Amino acid sequence: MGSMNRQQEFVLRTVEDRDVRFIRLWFSDVLGQLKSVAIVPAELEGAFGEGIGFDGSSVEGFSRVFESDMVLRPDPSTFSLLPWRGESEPTGRMFCDIYSPDGHPAASDARNVLRRTMDRAGERGFTFYVHPEIEFYLFESGELGGRPPVPVDTAGYFDHVNGGTANDFRRTAVQTLEAMGISVEFSHHEAGPGQNEIDLRYADGLTMADNVMTFRALVKEVALQQGVYASFMPKPLADRPGNGMHTHMSLFEGESNAFYEPAGEYQLSQTGRRFVAGLLRHAAEISAVTNQYVNSYKRIWTGHEAPSYICWGHRNRSALIRVPQYKSGKSSSARIEYRGIDSSANPYLAYSVMLAAGLKGIEEGYELPEEAEDNVWTLSDNERRAMGIEALPASLDEALARMEDSELVAETLGEEVFDFFLRNKREEWNDYRAQVTEYELGRHFTAP
Amino acid sequence: MRTRRGDPARSGGAGTSARAQRFMGEADELLGAEVLAGPAVAGLLSAAADPDAAALGVLRVVEAVAREGEGDRLRAALAGSPAFLSRLILLAGASEASIDHLVRWPDSVFVLNGEDTHLIVGSEDAAPDALRRTLFTAVGADPDAELPTATMTGEEAVAALRRRYRDLLVQVTVDDLAALEPTSIVESVTALLSDLAAGVIDAGLTIARAETEDADTASLAVIGMGKCGARELNYVSDVDVVFCYAARGEAPDDTAARAATRLALRLVEIISGSAAEPALWELDAALRPEGKAGPLVRKLEEFDHYYAEVAHNWEFQALLKARPIAGDASLGAAWYDTLNPYVWTASGRDGFIEQVRAMRVRVVDLIPKKETERQIKLGPGGLRDVEFSAQLLQLVHGLADDRIRVPTTLRVLAALGETGYIASADAADLAEAYRFMRVVEHRLQIPRMQRTALLPDQESKLRTLARSVYALGDRSEGRLADDRTAHSKRVRGLHEQIFYRPILEAAAGQDALTAMSAEAARARLAAFGYRGTKAAMGHIAALTSGVSRAAVVHRQVLPALLDWFSEGVDPDAGLLAFRRLSESLSGSNWYLKLLRDSGVAARSMAQVLSLSEFATGLLLHNPAAAAWLDDQERLQPRSVDSLRQEAAGLLERHGAEAVEPIRALYSREVLRTALGDVLDAVELPAIPGILSQLMEITIDAALSAVRAGLDAEADVPDYEFAVIAMGRLGGAEIGYFSDADVMFVHRPLVDDLDSEASGRLTAHVKKVALALTSALGGTGSASLEIDIDADLRPEGKSGPLVRGLESYRRYYAKWSEPWEAQALLRARPIAGSGELREAFDALIDPLRYPGEVPVSSLRQMRRLKARMESERLPRGADPKRHIKLGRGGLSDVEWTVQLLQLRHAADHPGLRTTSTLGALHAAVEAGLAGEDDARTLETAWSMATALRSAVMLFRGRTAAALPADHTELEAAARLMGYRPGSAQRLAEEYLGATRRARKVMERLFYEFD
Question: Where is the GS catalytic domain (chain A) (predicted)?
Answer without folding.
Answer: 110-448
